[in-house]
Amino acid sequence: MSKIPLIVVKWMDAHADGGWIDSDSLNPDPYEVTSVGIELTAKKGHVTIAQSVGCDIYDHVLHIPCGMVTEMYVIGTIDVEPD
User: Fold this and answer.
1) Whole-prediction pTM value?
2) For residue 5, which of 83, 77, 81 has the smallest C-alpha distance?
């Protein structure tokens, strides 16, 4: 059995204002997002988290570029049974 960290990641989202909009409607304000997930080591230069984990598969994986992360901390661990 292996222990995998459960983490909280706060990060600045690279969000979009869908479709064509006029300049008065632009929102230049930063947009901070908080995500919680199972920490994975998957992609260099990124914090990678998954929503769910099986013994050898992951669901809803999110790769957040490290430069966009403003805060990150471990809130616990989960046990995963290997095959």
Assistant:
1) 0.81
2) 77
